[in-house]
Each structure stands twice: as structure tokens, then as C-alpha cells.
Specification:
2 domains; binds zinc ion; globular; six-stranded mixed beta sheet; Aminopeptidase; alpha/beta; Immunoglobulin-like; 431 residues
Length: 431
């Protein structure tokens, strides 16, 4: 329970990232927020100008204006949840920061309580039936001090809760991760499966669909969420790869839930992956931007300014999805030795193979192989690439990305690229 509550601001992390995330707008919130701020500024300027034009000084008794009514307490406005294989995430969206630190406690072996003093509850917020293997239901209620939310757990476990401050269009939130208890039987089964795969000298591919859960990724043309598109392509790619003799494929994410970037690398390691392919969609404020590009890790800096900006956007996933600070920067500061340089060389080959294969898809223009500091590419021993399939912000490419046939074509091309990589390595191994 020591880590049951803490707080930090997303702003700090964003300043570390230097430039703002150009995509992944929180659904429906950022545009209104910005509009409101702009509107106030404009109104302020108009007020000053009109005083100047009439030459009227502010009335002396302005101080007697009755004081403004105190601001109403912030509200719990929405409860959302996602089921992942190893945890269930509950997110409480708030209209403002909690005036008093929320209290988190186990009220019984299968009852978890969140008390948020001086908070109101929107009438739209009602009890939720979750019904997965970890959480039964969520009961929000109004208490004497504020809002009390009781979470019915399916089994005895200690949830991890944290408060995230609003920033850049994302509302204040309380996040509760309910972890699944360790499952030694499942771990043993996976170990046996991996031993079998390794015996048959298979190439193991970790396919990593970006984003998921409370991180929708870029919201593209007509608000098409990147997270959904890349999951569909990743599943199709897994199917394609499983058809190739000697190849086995795993997904880091098989449903709509959030996984921190470093956890994705951990999963690739757990599957003893030989290569990792992270699937994303590109986004730009310039709606005319189109094309596909494949990235591998840069040890020295991004190929160009746009690549740096795309990497920062993708790296912000942990800020959008929200991870406790302790799980932070261990891999960011990693030192690369000679072996890791070899990994980067192989990553570059894989990127070339994938781009060459994607050239065969007539509807895509290729922007080539590029380098940038994507966090998800930092597994020191696994050659890793990140495919920005197409621009979800471009109307024509968004329509393509949504189309199941196009998704299958992209998956086929990527599988061709993996086969080319395999052949090259079989050749270099036999020489
Ligand atoms: Zn992305």
C-alpha cells in the first residue's frame, strides 16, 4: 500500500520531451479547451480596447462589485475500464484536480474503496458492471465528505492507484490498475511452448500494435483511432507469418488495453523474440502528408526534424496512457555496447527489407527507411523496427487504413519483408 497514491504533472514529462505531442488528441477535449482559452484572451483585448476608445476610466467603486461565487467543487464525470491479460484498468475522469488527496484502501479481501473528499459526482456516473476475471463491479456514490467509489474484486489482490494531473487536453484522472495474481501454470505452459519453438529453429517475431486502452493513438481523419487500425493490421500480420514455415509470431497486445512502452519490450523478451515489429500510423497537421516509412533506432539522433517529432509523439504514449513514475526511465538511459550496435545493424536490414516489400503495394508511396529515438525500439538484443504504415490524418490514406482488404495487403507485404530478412540471414549464416 506504500505506493497507493502519488501525483505528478504530465507537464514535467512533456517538458522533458521538449516539443508537444502533435497527435493523439484526447477525444473531444483539446479543441474545446484551447478554444476557451483563446476566447478569453480575445474577450480581454476587446474589453481594454473599448475602454480606450470611449476614454472612460474604470469606476472608482469597482471594488464594491460583489465577490464572485466560489467555484463549484470538481466532478467525477466518467468511469471507464479495460481488461488486459494481466490487469484490469479503471479510469475515473475528473473535471478538475481533487481538492484533497484521494484515499485508497482495501475495505475487505475483495472490496477496494476510493474516497475522494470535496468532489461531486455527475448524475451521468452510475454503477458499472465489469465482470471480467478480476473486477466484478464499480459502485460510485455520494458520501458525507465527497464521493466514495467501491470496487468489487473477484479475488484478493492489491490494486495500484495513482492520480494524473490534466495536461494538454487530457483531463485530471484517477487510475486504478487491478493486477492479476501470478499464474505459474500459464508461465510454465508458455515456457514449454517456447522451448518447442526454439527446438525447431523458428524465427520468433514479436508484433507490437501501438497504443490501446486509454491511449487511442492518433485520432485521424473523421476521428479514426490509430489503436484500432494497428491492432487489426497486427492480427493479420500474425496470421500471415504463421503461414510461413519456420516462423512463429506473438502479439504484445491482442485487445483494446494499454501497455506501457517498456512492458512491450519485456513481452518481446519473454517470448524470446528474434525480431520485433511495432505497427503504427503516422499523423501530421498537414493533411496532405502521405506515405509509409520504417524506422529503426538511432543512437545519435533522428534522421530529420519530422522523424524526431514523430518519435516524440509515439514516445508520449506512456504519458497519455499513464504509468506510475517508478516504472519510468530505466531503458531510456541504456548504454549501447558493441553487441547492441550489431542489433541496430540488423534492425536497419530488417527496415530495408520491409520498405522494399511495401514498395509492391501500389496504393502506398514509400518515404524510405529512417532513424529516430523511439523508446519501443530500445531492446538491446532484439532487432526492432517501427512501421508507420500510412498517414491516418490524410483523408485518402485514412480510408485505406480502415479498409480490411488494404490492412491484409499491408500485412502480406510485411510478411514478405520478414521472409526476405530470413533468407538474407540464412545466407549469411551458411557463408
Ligand atoms: Zn502511434
Amino acid at each position: 500500500m506504500r505506493r497507493s497514491s502519488w501525483r505528478w504533472t504530465l507537464k514535467d514529462d512533456r517538458e522533458r520531451l521538449k516539443t508537444p505531442r502533435p497527435h493523439s488528441v484526447w477525444p473531444g477535449l483539446r479543441p474545446q479547451g484551447r478554444g476557451l482559452r483563446t476566447g478569453l484572451t480575445v474577450c480581454g483585448v476587446v474589453a481594454v480596447l473599448s475602454l480606450g476608445m470611449t476614454g472612460t476610466a474604470a469606476p472608482r467603486d469597482a471594488a464594491r462589485t460583489p465577490p464572485r461565487a466560489p467555484r463549484p467543487a470538481p466532478e467525477l464525470v466518467r468511469i471507464r475500464f479495460w481488461t488486459a491479460p494481466d490487469h484490469t484498468r479503471l479510469v475515473f475522469d475528473l473535471s478538475g484536480p481533487p481538492p484533497v488527496e484521494p484515499q485508497f484502501r482495501l475495505a475487505g479481501p475483495t472490496s477496494y474503496e476510493i474516497s475522494i473528499p470535496k468532489m461531486r459526482k455527475s448524475i451521468a456516473v452510475t454503477s458499472e458492471f465489469v465482470g471480467d476475471s478480476l473486477v466484478a463491479d464499480i459502485f460510485p456514490s455520494v458520501s458525507d465528505s465527497g464521493v466514495l467509489v467501491r470496487v468489487g474484486l473477484k479475488q484478493a489482490t492489491t490494486p495500484l492507484a495513482f492520480v494524473l494531473a490534466a495536461a494538454d487536453g487530457i483531463p485530471d484522472r484517477i487510475v486504478i490498475d487491478v493486477p492479476a495474481p501470478p499464474n505459474p501454470q500459464a508461465d510454465l505452459k508458455l515456457e514449454q511452448q517456447l522451448t518447442e519453438i526454439k527446438k525447431s529453429k523458428r524465427l520468433v517475431v514479436a508484433i507490437d500494435p501501438g497504443h490501446g486502452g486509454d491511449d487511442t493513438g492518433a485520432l485521424g481523419y473523421r476521428r479514426l483511432p490509430e489503436a484500432d487500425v494497428v491492432l487489426a493490421i497486427a492480427k493479420k500480420l500474425r496470421w500471415e507469418l504463421e503461414q510461413i514455415s519456420g516462423v512463429s509470431a506473438f502479439l504484445t497486445r491482442a485487445g483494446d488495453y494499454f501497455i506501457p512502452l517498456r512492458k512491450r519490450i519485456e513481452l518481446a523478451r519473454k517470448y524470446q523474440a528474434d525480431i520485433m515489429i511495432s505497427i503504427h500510423c503516422n499523423a501530421s497537421r498537414n493533411r496532405d502528408a502521405t506515405g509509409t516509412e520504417v524506422y529503426f533506432l538511432s543512437l545519435t539522433g533522428a534522421t530529420d526534424e519530422a522523424s524526431r517529432s514523430f518519435a516524440e509523439a509515439e514516445n508520449a504514449a506512456d504519458l497519455i496512457g499513464g504509468v506510475p513514475r517508478e516504472t519510468g526511465d530505466d531503458l531510456l538511459g541504456i548504454l549501447f555496447d558493441l553487441k547492441q550496435n550489431d542489433t541496430v545493424r540488423r534492425s536497419s536490414e530488417l527496415a530495408e527489407n520491409l520498405v522494399d516489400a511495401l514498395r509492391d503495394e501500389d496504393r502506398l508511396s514509400t518515404r524510405g527507411v529512417k532513424q529516430a529515438g523511439f523508446v519501443v525500439l530500445k531492446a538491446p538484443e532484439i532487432p526492432s523496427v517501427l512501421v508507420e504504415t500510412a498517414f491516418i490524418s490524410n483523408p485518402r490514406e485514412a480510408a485505406m487504413l480502415k479498409d480490411a482488404q488494404f490492412q491484409s495487403k499491408v500485412a502480406e507485404r510485411l510478411a514478405d519483408g520478414v521472409q526476405a530478412y530470413m533468407k538474407n540471414h540464412a545466407r549469411s549464416a551458411s557463408n
